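Annotated sample (chain length 651).
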Amino acid sequence: MAGGCSIRALWILNNHDVVVFSRRFPVVERRWRAACKSENESCLDENVGIDVLPLLPTDSELASAFVDRKTREGSARGFGIRVAQSAEGSDSWVDDPITRHIISLYVNKEDEGENHLLWPLILHIKGHYCILVLPLVEPRHLKAYARMCKRPDCGNAVGMDESLSSLLLDLPSITGAFMVAHAIGDVVAGETPEPEVVVSVSPSVGGLLDSLTGSIGISGISARAKPAAAPVPASSTSSTALGGAVASDAPNSRPLDKDTLRNFISSSMPFGRYSLLCLFDLMATSYVLVGLYIGTPLDLNYSNISAIKLYGFASSDLPPADRKQPAWKPYIYKGKQRIIFTIHEAVNAAMYDRDEIPDVISISGQVNCRAELEGLPDVSFPMTGLDTAHIEVLSFHPCAQVPEQGVDKQAVMFTPPLGNFVLMRYQALCGIGPPIKGFYQLSMVSENEGAFLFKLHLMERYKAPLTLEFCTVTMPFPRRRVVSFDGTPSVGTVSTTEHSVEWKIITSGRGISGKSIEATFPGTVKFAPWQTQRSISSGSVLGSVAGEDSDTEPEATNSLVNVEEFLLEKMNKDLQAVDLEEPFCWQAYDYAKVSFKIGGASLSGISIDPKSVSIFPAVKAPVEFSIQVTSGEYILWNTLGKCPSAATTKV
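Output written by the structure step:
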């Protein structure tokens, strides 16, 4: 049972803890009841103090259990570690942070009056909604977790027979349930991003995916007769440098589109064999056979499912007789052929300029691809530059095969799916060194005035064709209102907002290549006086906050405060400085953030030679290749203030 991923049920709750959508998979539930019966017959004498729930709870029972857990654990996610307020049998009693994402509920059956443990529930919070996904596991796994909730010791002790980590490693259905939860979250929030590929400027050819992504179309498909169905709403996201179109997790007022959600679930996790046969009647035999596994996620790609729903199939979509159509390519492309590769790299850095703390810099990269090729061809090419890339982590799309690996190249062969997809992801070190290095200092000369100094080196040891297209440094002051600043940088311009100072060192259209420059910026910044005086307790954030000024009365029955919610609340208010040296942050830090874009080559050294790309069967298809390097979390920590750093082991 634990060898795959089947979903028993899923629920979506709004911010009022009301179930606004639910779906159950009866066939999977029958498998669960049969497993419970078999487990009870083989273990009649076993008793862990918690009854296994043989039936799924009603929506009202689940909502009530969810509210009880929030009260018990302090928030929807909970503490994640055992604290003084943790109760035996609760998730935080297990003392593992993963219990903030894989939770349990105690369901009180109205007709029985007993509490039953429901586990594992994958919790994903998206905007106003909490998404709960219950995968199928074996009853013995649930009983093992129930024993952990009663264990007197904390954490995963050495020598213990059972631990949560080892239990989850035995459950691949957990990973699948996470994927389902995140896919449903994207649908609920109206976010269906595709990886970004950079295309040469040319008119769109129109077609299937234009309506879904606003990107390149697939010609030939759009000419088909479209069934009379409600159009699928296009994604309203905007593209970013690394992950394509990504939107914020901030709450929004977008109503839940239940019809779109039902269509997505019924196609990606069909209820029965016949519904799947109807949907994939003109697809390969492998699709029909997969349909026997009812409630199993088949394809969580929203673009593929929406296209199938909207356009249906044509006889020309049948694959060649000698080829088996893969699951990731439900359509056979027709039209002008070409392949587009784009390497996206994000540079993450923590610059300290301290002898006792080393600077940290890393590269997160991915190779995005779009292959507009007719039929089911195989594409292969060597990935070059691996000898200088210092790759630490490397993973590939399921469509890829990696038959050989050399000192400087990695041969990759794949049968491409439709649309944009991530062919490869990697983590690497930056062998050249940081593109922006130097220091940032900030100190207070009075309660409402601070003096700062930047001294930066840009593109040191970087040679052509690497080009710094733009570079901006931002000093955020989220809890102070900027009144004015005084200072002139050696290069660039300065502007202010209500809560930040922005230094534009290099602007778009005036990039630098083949040389390094030094930029300095001394100055002072003045803030508005504190309007409200508040006292900050130096005690634990898990304690009571009743001593602080507040417009609301604290609850007498529950003084628990979730760490994240408490910090977020305080960061959005004008709090009095803890002391004169740390006036900006409450239990946080002073920093400046660097944003930049580099073109010309990748910083890791990884590259693709378009002339080395081969297609079988051979077709004439141009290959386009581009590289984009942008800043990720690139932080300059204040050398005169506090800063977080990872402890290193002394040998």
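Annotation: Residues 201-252, 271-293, 532-561, 570-588 have pLDDT under 50 and may be disordered.
Annotation: The first strand starts at residue 7 and ends at 13.
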